[in-house]
Amino acid sequence: MLSHGHAYTTDLPINVGPPTIEEISMAIRQIKSDKAEGPNNIPAEALQADVVVTAKILHILFNTIWDEEQVPTDWKEGLLIKIPKKGDLTKCRNYRRITLLSIPGKVFHTILLNRMKDCVDAQLRNPQAGFRKDRSCIDQMGTLRIIVEQSIESNSLFNIDFID
Fold it and tell me: How many CB atoms lie within 10 A of CB 19?
């Protein structure tokens, strides 16, 4: 595949084997604590109380999921909660919505994300900042300003796409 003169491959070197105990332990530590638990009422603190034991238990579960290629239904679902903001509560815009997800499911998904992010990041062009860690809108605004200034200097047109 070609994009702006760059060749990209769809064959990324991502580990597709079952999760290891080390990956599970790391993912458990990455889950934020002091957050509401998901539909199965398992808080992050329960998994983080003894990471070694939890990782061994989840390793058995994750291997079964991996072998059967069947993710538990409650890991695919979330509990949508509306949190009121200030203002007229009869208007939808005055609510913030959050989705509570299964914490064991978050651990599983964190492992998959950890495996993919470095490989995918290596394929993205450096100017690509959206949805990437440690990239900021401020950097993009500086780049945009330079492009606008160069366009004005050369009296040329340009297009801008804003994606939110």
Answer: 24
